[in-house]
Hints:
The structure holds two protein chains of two kinds. By secondary structure, chain A is an alpha/beta fold. Chain A has a single domain, classed as Aconitase, domain 4. Chain A contains eight helices and eight strands. In chain A, helix 3 (87-95) links the parallel strand 3 (72-74) and strand 4. The model of chain A has no long low-confidence stretch (mean pLDDT 96). Chain B is an alpha/beta fold. Chain B is built from 17 helices and 19 strands. The mean pLDDT of chain B is 97.
Amino acid sequence: MALAKITSVTGRAVNVPGNDIDTDRIIPARFMKCVTFDGLGEFLFYDVRKDTTTGENTNHPLNDSRFNGATILLSGANFGCGSSREHAPQAIAKYGFKAVIAENFAEIFFGNSTTLGMPCVTAAREDIAKIAAAVEADPRTEVTIDLEKLEARFAGQSVKIEQRESARDALINGRWDAIGELIDGLPDVKTTAAKLPYMAA
Amino acid sequence: MAKSLFQKVWDAHSVRKLANGQTQLLIGTHLIHEVTSPQAFGMLRDLGLKVAFPHRTFATVDHIIPTNELVEPYADSLAQAMMDEIRKNCAEFGVTFFDRASGKQGIVHIVGPEQGITQPGTTIACGDSHTSTHGAFGAIAFGIGTSQVRDVLATQTMALGALKVRRIEVNGKLRPGVYAKDVILHIIRLTGVNGGTGFAYEYAGSTFDAFTMEERMTVCNMSIEGGARVGYVNPDETTFAYLKGRPYSPKGAEWDTAVERWKSYASDKGAHYDDVMIIDAADIAPSVTWGINPGQGISITENIPSPETATSADDKAGIIEALEYMKLPAGKPIKGTKINVAFLGSCTNGRLSDFQEVAKYIQGRKVAPGIKAIAVPGSQIVALQCEKLGLDKILVEAGFEWRAAGCSMCLAMNPDKLIGDQLCASSSNRNFKGRQGSTTGRTILMSPVMVAAAAVTGEVSDAREVFHVANN
């Protein structure tokens, strides 16, 4: 299975500020009553984008038309905490995002996103604030996440980004979805299983 | 070299190193449920793959199942579609499915242990973050996303980087009225919701040694709420006594061999830990959350935090956001906060001992007028155990509704939901905004006995006072 080598992502960005943004917030559970991930995009951040009493749009950044078409999501610390639902990164990706920059990520969310080929990179709070300020000043600002140089470039500026080496390696070398490699290892899997009595049929 | 259980189990299940430096890890036991598996089976079909080890894959249905509707088709056609899908997938791929008709259906993290599928020294994965529950048996149990469910179905392995290990020792006797739930809420309060990121937790110390398996499961269950992907307790005689005679436990001569093998997985004396945390059991009080994540907790005797007392700008912003959502007054006692709903159940606290403990105190008492109170056994077997002991009658007599097994109001993927800004005293595990099904619904996490106390008084209460628990 040939996968794209994801060495960089370039696009416009939108800032969804806050810490501990959990997966229930990203995709409320009621939208997970589905047997495919198709169509999840429209429910991204649903409950904070709609006023519960009026049904009107709130002032959530994703409702701000200036940021329509953004492909890079900016946020705070511990992004994606809570449930292991892949529906969360799927909703983000299906909405149209190609990458997320945050101060740090919850473990399972990070892994799920990487497997989808959606890079999650971390940056210092003040650096995310710089990107957010540039985007706020001019929503057309193009942001480039460079996974090889580990920097984000925007509006003539550049800030340092980080990513766990195993994820970075997988993305830039086009092996972010491990399935092919795992299948190749099946003969070894059988050897390992044979040493464990509880694996016997 | 002295090793921790985590290292031993990891080593025994390591297949090989992958190109990006991660490990291809054998997952001995794969548990699946209806919400995070259908897409994975779809991917399998698209790739023309089979389930590699169908005999090590077990399914049940829990998230979407209505707890007050037993006959199909369910009123919610989406729920019915998911039910049909898992049935079809299990039949097509040769996977054991604990359907309602089997009498063994329930929340996946309750079914595994009660069937004896969850065993020490094994690796377990399930597309649900509360899979850490199974660590109570000395297993390394991971919550995974759907693409990884696909990986495990297709290869019985997944790609994973090693975790660091933090030993959390709790020593001494818990004070009366303090439960395993309070222990884990206390730990998360200390570490914060992301303090465990990158770690596996080894829970140890005399408090854990004295715990029953159900108590250990309650603590391990909420490891993820502190950011830790895995939490475990070393296997001991309590573990073996629990497993003996269960349907999937080894039998006859194999039992003794298995116990010896299980013992060998326990952490060695002098094993290396990346971090150690030591807690005195006497410092733990009945705990409740006041905010919108499980780390925002206090003891029942404390006041709700106020933005002025925040320790950092982040903390301050967090308090302001939480109090605004929770509609709670800063700096005032949490005790006395009016509730609307009382929920007993979930993979955290939906086991026999939870209902036994509640029944002991609620017998002869009544749920306060206007409070909706529901008790939801975690599995059909838990339901039957409770019913044999007459616990259901005690709960119903007190004013609780006694429901069929499922996740129920923990996560609102079924008809059990909060309405408007109702406030729920809940024995579940998450108090995120909107978690219990209403976008303005509010959750206060606590132990089952504290839920019972809140149900009886109609407000957040100190169960030790309401039920006259001797404070010796």
